[in-house]
Fold:
Amino acid sequence: MAASERGRGLIAALALAAALAAAPARAASADGWESLDMAVKAFKVADLDGTVLDSRSLEGKVVVIDFWATWCAPCVQELPELEAYKKRIAGRKDLAVLSLNVTEDTDTVRRFVARRSMTPPVYLGDDLLGPYQVAGFPTKLILDLRGAAPGKVRFRREGGPVPIRSLEERVAAVLARRP
Amino acid sequence: MARCIGIVSAAAWAVLCWASAAAAGPTGASKNVQVELVPEVESVQPGTPLWVGIRLRMAPKWHTYWLNPGDSGLPTRMRWALPEGFAAEPFEWPTPEPIAAPPLVSYGYEGEVMLLSRITPPPTLAAGSEVTIGGRLDWLECKEACLPGRAQLDVTLPVRDAPPARAAAAAELFAAARAALPGDGASWTPRVHVSPQLVALSFQSPLTPRRATFLPETQGLIEYAPPQRLLRTADGYRLEMTPSTAPAAGEILAGVLVVQGEGGPVAVRVETRRETLTAALPAGQPIETGRAAEGAQALGLPLALALAFLGGMILNLMPCVLPVLSLKVMGFVRHAGDRGAAWRHGLAYTVGVLLSFWVLAGLLLLLRAGGQQVGWGFQLQSPPFVAFLACLFFAIGLNLFGVFEVGLSLTSAGGALHARSGLGSSLAGGVLATIVATPCTAPFMGSALGFGLSQPPAVSLLIFSALGLGMALPYLVLSLSPGLLRFVPKPGRWMETFKQFMGFLMMGTVVVLVWIFGQQVGIDGVTALLAGLVILASSAWIYGRGTAPEAGEGQRRAAYVLSAVLATAGLFVGFTRAGTSAAPASGATTVSGGIAWEEWSPEKVAAARAQGKPVFVDFTAAWCLSCQVNERVALGAAEVQERFRREGVVMLRADWTRRDDAITQALAAYGRNGVPLYVLYGRGKSEPHLLPEVISPGLVLDALDSHL
Structure:
């Protein structure tokens, strides 16, 4: 098990190093968001009950991804505001928020989710760390999955707690760019 | 440690830590942390243990975590890869510091830290060879973001058969690291009692603690964010903490107890078996916490007594006491001719003041010992008491107007002015003066009272006595010195006019009291109280008519009965709404005096300070006249408001009109026990600046100049 993990880790690390080498230079603006124009890589993530979500089922939406962990204080600090935001946009056909825990096991996350009354689903997002070059937490991505095209990562922000207004503005900007 | 290994998947960590997967050596680095493996010795002797240090140097404001990271975080850990036969012991952790990220509190290190580990080589090691000691270090570095870090660290040392020489370069590092380790707390005889409501750590301490913090080594014992309360008990000290909402601690409880004594903080590691709390713990006297409290403690008893005395004298000049004092002056006018009578009255007045201060202090101490959060002026937080005061002052006012006269048999507090008044009325005058003094805080009083209430009851009583003596002193001196009495005008017809004029002052006081009452219970309560006052007035009028010299015996009796019935009815009507409470305007922004105040909460203060904004907190109460005056005169001044706006100061108001335990605790943390209190946090400053009890526009502007 340990050997295979190490193997996976090494492969992922190499992949990430390669991806980083190819990544264009980025600059964050005053509110901490960077503008990107990176192709979305299709992904599948499982929630705490094992139900798998395929990114292709989100076609047509703007998707906010939040990478977080219970050991990350700035992530935990901003969770209540993010929860409120999720509730506000519930029912919107053009918008979704994915909560992706990283590095932790199902039981730890399940206990935390229950204690903090987080709204499910919460996904286990380790597999996305490499492809999206995430090394600090919290990190948020705003994806535009329009039409049949693979879609683009439009914005990215590392660090928290994030001012929810700035998140809403960036989401609005992505929606406004649509035809 | 198990927690960390259990929850972080090695694969994910490897992905995260790709950047530090550099070649091994004694040093490594991530974006914000430099790490180094430091051996204490220059060579290894077979079988002789040696110490190595893991040195972490953090970029400014970045931190790494302790063994128990608190609410959020991960401990630094080393996965040793040692040659055959070597054994490494777990880290010795220097005392961490609490790191607040509201509402979370973590335990960790900023700046620099060195974790120590003892490594024992096998006795069979061959001299003349070399050994490589090292492993993989994993840590979490956080500021606004958290980044997992990893480095492969190792050092190679020669094996010699001689006792190893110390590495000179490392000596200082190891000395500093050892000094930062908590001491052994076994002699402090720690005991931990746990109940669903309370975790209590009892201990003895060779120093006199002003403040204590317990940092448990394991999760699931306490909540980290709530304040820990230190009490002095008969046989030592007790620290009371909030139990974890997810209890998971084992039978053996260990942690670091940090105690602030006279000579700075002392940290000891305590370890004890958990005990279930079955019976009540012995009573304890709370020790106020907070930095400012330390300042107050540093006052020392003599200075605190002097301040209390001075504050008591100045209290006479505060707007609350003046109306009553004018009555007192009248008393002197009357007795000025008779020196013996004068000093007896002065003494009676002093006794009255002292007695009521003692009663007040006793009540305060009793309530506080019972766990109630109360402070100076607490009785005015009770609407029935305010209503009672309004009725009393109204009755005194009517008496001064001459609506009714009171005989000796009914000597009331207001009888101080009556021609036939005796020593009792002078005593009552002292009581009354104290009662009406409580809405005011004079300069110097705040820190003296804050000090007094953090001390054992005897010292508290001393402070209160000094305050009372200070307040009574001017009259005592006046009554004892015939020279001064010569300046008092002769009694005459002018006294009747003066008496009636005083009646208007009393009515003015009633208006203030009704306003306070209205803040507490709302407009319906005010209406009921005013109706009650009207009925009281009719009672007084009937009494006055019935007891007039020309009234017959029958009329007199009827007047007694009717006025008693009406007085009861008046009080009944006036108090009908005294039990209700107007809904506080929670969370609202209130605009007063041209400033948009936000409702105070500790979280808001922390949040604003975390964003580097300056913060001004106004601790106030409707019944606190000093507060009202300060708010209008100093904070209401145009240039002060303009300055607050320009500097972007976050304006918070903590309203203590009703009882509020959070505010009482916050006051205690600043070493105070009453309002007004003005606290200014400059940009990025960790120490608050406290303004005096009486402020002027210039004083506020100066404070902004030097402390923003």
The interface with chain B takes residues 2, 5-6, 8-10, 12-13, 16-17, 69-77, 102-105, 108, 111, 115, 126, 129-130, 135-139, 158-160 of chain A (CB under 8 Å). Residues 1-11, 13-26 of chain A have pLDDT under 50 and may be disordered. Residues 2-22 of chain A form the longest helix (21 residues).
